[in-house]
């Protein structure tokens, strides 16, 4: 009950945050030197036709009134129509968001595995000559952004070795099953092992490129947390009782050191979700990042606004889940 109450409070706090973000997005997009009415009309449209479109879209009204109209429609699930694609915006987000979530989750799995394993390795090398080499390696990894990893993987595995696909999500000729919108899950639900294998192979390079870029901070935070925990009295008491070093690390130290690491991983996932934009473009991955780039290129304000709000919602949900996991892993916080 305490866990549910805490999550409920976090979600209630998220509502005004989302409203503030929607206001900032709405105002920022409306002050841009872009006329959505003119862009929605054919090139040979007259001035009167453009003005009629402006009145129909409500662009001739004061900005607060425009926002109130938009918010009223948004509450009922109407986020407007794409200026460029001439389609409702919400279904477009619904089609592309699952792909971005799949990419971000797989990349976070890669970052978590590499980060936790690397952090334990760095901690085990403390006081040794190899520690300086390992720290230099993590510094080098931190200096390489995700888009550079993406380009490097394309060159090595796609061009030189020709071992991995690096465009799209499926091999040509394979029909995509549609059940939940998540390709990997849908392939399993309908029993299409060939589709699952193809989707996983196409997902591998972009997921590893993103994961490698976000793994080094997890390594360093886990190592620092373990170093702090090992100065605690209960670690010394465990040694005096004859507990093995492996048991001390896995059963005592890691349980407490993982808390700040978990917080960082939650923050990292938010950044990773946003950082997938460039990787999606590089790999021609049909996700929300590619949709966002096309919308910016065509000044498609309704899509840009809803994509921004979607990123905000995802980050708020991640933070709420991390807070909930904190309560599960640290029972002392439930008494506050």
UniProtKB/TrEMBL annotation:
Pfam families: BPD_transp_1, BPD_transp_1_N. Residues 97-322 form the ABC transmembrane type-1 domain. It is a multi-pass membrane protein. It is found in: Cell membrane. Keywords: Cell membrane, Membrane, Transmembrane, Transmembrane helix, Transport. Its main location: membrane. It comes from the Bacteria. The chain crosses the membrane at residues 12-32, 101-125, 146-164, 195-215, 257-283, 303-329. GO terms for biological process: transmembrane transport. One of its GO terms (cellular component) is plasma membrane. The keyword Nucleotide-binding does not apply. The keyword Transmembrane applies. Belongs to the binding-protein-dependent transport system permease family. This is ABC transporter permease. It comes from Limobrevibacterium gyesilva. The lineage of its organism: Bacteria, Pseudomonadati, Pseudomonadota, Alphaproteobacteria, Acetobacterales.
């Amino acid at each position: 009950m305490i866990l549910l109450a805490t999550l409920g409070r976090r979600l209630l706090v998220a509502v005004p945050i989302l409203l503030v973000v929607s206001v900032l997005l709405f105002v920022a997009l409306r002050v841009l030197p872009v006329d959505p009415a003119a862009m929605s009309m054919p090139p040979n449209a007259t001035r009167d036709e453009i003005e009629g479109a402006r009145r129909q879209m409500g662009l001739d009204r004061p900005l607060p009134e425009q926002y109130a109209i938009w918010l009223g429609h948004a509450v009922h699930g109407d986020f407007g129509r794409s200026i460029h694609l001439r389609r409702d915006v919400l279904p477009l987000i619904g089609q592309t968001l699952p792909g971005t979530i799949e990419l971000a989750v797989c990349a976070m799995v890669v970052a978590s595995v590499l980060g936790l394993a690397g952090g334990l390795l760095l901690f085990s090398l403390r006081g040794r000559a190899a520690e300086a080499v390992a720290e230099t390696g993590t510094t080098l990894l931190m200096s390489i952004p995700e888009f550079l990893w993406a380009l490097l993987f394309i060159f090595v595995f796609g061009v030189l070795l020709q071992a991995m696909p690096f465009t799209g999500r499926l091999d040509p000729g394979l029909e995509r099953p549609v059940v939940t919108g998540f390709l990997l899950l849908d392939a399993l639900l309908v029993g299409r092992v060939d589709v699952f294998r193809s989707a996983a192979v196409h997902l591998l390079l972009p997921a590893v490129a993103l994961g490698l870029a976000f793994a080094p901070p997890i390594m360093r935070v886990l190592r620092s947390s373990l170093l702090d925990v090992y100065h605690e009295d209960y670690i010394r008491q465990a040694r005096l009782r004859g507990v093995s070093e492996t048991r001390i690390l896995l059963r005592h130290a890691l349980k407490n050191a993982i808390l700040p690491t978990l917080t960082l991983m939650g923050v990292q996932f938010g950044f990773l979700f946003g950082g997938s934009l460039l990787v999606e473009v590089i790999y021609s991955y049909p996700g929300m990042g590619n949709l966002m780039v096309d919308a910016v290129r065509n000044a498609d304000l309704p899509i840009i606004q809803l994509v921004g709000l979607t990123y905000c919602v995802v980050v708020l949900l991640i933070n709420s889940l991390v807070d909930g996991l904190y309560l599960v892993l640290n029972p002392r916080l439930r008494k506050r």
